[in-house]
Amino acid sequence: MSEHDLRVGLVGAGRMGADHAVRVHERTSGARLVAVADPDLERAQQVADGTGARAAQDPYDVITASDVDALVIASPGAVHEPLLLAAIERGVPVLCEKPLTPDAQSSLRVLEAEEKRGQRLIQVGFMRRFDAEYVELKRLLGSGELGRALLLHCAHRNPFSPPGFTSQMMVYDSVVHEFDTTRWLLDDEIAAVSVRAPRSSEQSPEGLLDPQLVTIETAGGVLVDVEIFVNCGFGYQVRCEAVAERGTALIGADGGPLVHRNKQWGGAVTADFRDRFGAAFDREFQRWADAARRGEVDGEGASAWDGYAAAVACEAGVRAQATGDRTEVELVDRPDFYAKS
Ligand code: ISE
């Protein structure tokens, strides 16, 4: 610890917040956790215990604290807007778990506030941008070695869904990652979304359309199919196969040893998203903290604009799911403030 450490306040001490508290405390150099807020004070205290941070019930006690230099927001998306607006008003950098906000209108209000402040402060926690395999795929596609990308085949499988998870949340909470990775990998905008579903798995909770097949069309003419299956039962898998003019590249095909024995072969599947993306989260946090200490935002991270674009795609996805129609995605004009660097 040093006096130059970035003093981080955490808002939200649920599953993700607890994970991020350990990440800041143990694995982010030059950063230190100083305060944790959660409406459940006991939960905040448990997460703060052993880190040297204090616990609070009111998020604004942390957001406005003079000893907090930067914020991690890991509370449910529905409450992000006022928290983000307060952080922007104070002028502190924020790493906000996805979604930026749950809908396009509230995301736009956040963009406007950030632009009015005249300083980019928000990074949205789309951690796949920091995953070694995704980074390599982006490099490969950008290098032109495989020619132009034509198709992406994506599979996003979770072992089981949390209680209360709905068919809409499969778009808002899960496919939102593919909306972001599509835009980021291809450097392209999403033009339209369609959703279809086969019969549902008998392993999925009653009433959940699971799996679903989401088709994304990009403005540049790439087609992306996403299988979202949140009760696949066998583990956590996120795959993406890019089909380009002169080759294909597959990521997420489960690393580790492929073992042959007893007339069988096989390997391990990651158990949950923390196993699969733990290193990506670590890299995301380290880069975010380093940039915040320099008074900058990390150019590799997702901006508030990216969070807004994902929210618009999610809204279109949920409309497409309800109507069965191909649904166009329309963004407002991109402000110069969010111009690509
Ligand atoms: C969860 O919120 C995540 O962000 C995970 O990365 C994703 O795989 C899962 O489907 C979401 O529910």
UniProtKB/TrEMBL annotation:
<comment type="similarity">
    <text>Belongs to the Gfo/Idh/MocA family.</text>
</comment>
<comment type="function">
    <text>Involved in the oxidation of myo-inositol (MI) to 2-keto-myo-inositol (2KMI or 2-inosose).</text>
</comment>
<keyword id="KW-0560">Oxidoreductase</keyword>
<dbReference type="InterPro" id="IPR023794">
    <property type="entry name" value="MI/DCI_dehydrogenase"/>
</dbReference>
<protein>
    <recommendedName>
        <fullName>Inositol 2-dehydrogenase</fullName>
        <ecNumber>1.1.1.18</ecNumber>
    </recommendedName>
</protein>
<dbReference type="InterPro" id="IPR050424">
    <property type="entry name" value="Gfo-Idh-MocA_inositol_DH"/>
</dbReference>
<feature type="domain" description="GFO/IDH/MocA-like oxidoreductase">
    <location>
        <begin position="134"/>
        <end position="249"/>
    </location>
</feature>
<dbReference type="GO" id="GO:0050112">
    <property type="term" value="F:inositol 2-dehydrogenase (NAD+) activity"/>
</dbReference>
<keyword id="KW-0520">NAD</keyword>
<dbReference type="InterPro" id="IPR036291">
    <property type="entry name" value="NAD(P)-bd_dom_sf"/>
</dbReference>
<dbReference type="Pfam" id="PF22725">
    <property type="entry name" value="GFO_IDH_MocA_C3"/>
</dbReference>
<feature type="domain" description="Gfo/Idh/MocA-like oxidoreductase N-terminal">
    <location>
        <begin position="6"/>
        <end position="125"/>
    </location>
</feature>
<comment type="subunit">
    <text>Homotetramer.</text>
</comment>
<dbReference type="InterPro" id="IPR055170">
    <property type="entry name" value="GFO_IDH_MocA-like_dom"/>
</dbReference>
<dbReference type="InterPro" id="IPR000683">
    <property type="entry name" value="Gfo/Idh/MocA-like_OxRdtase_N"/>
</dbReference>
<dbReference type="GO" id="GO:0000166">
    <property type="term" value="F:nucleotide binding"/>
</dbReference>
<dbReference type="Pfam" id="PF01408">
    <property type="entry name" value="GFO_IDH_MocA"/>
</dbReference>
<dbReference type="GO" id="GO:0019310">
    <property type="term" value="P:inositol catabolic process"/>
</dbReference>
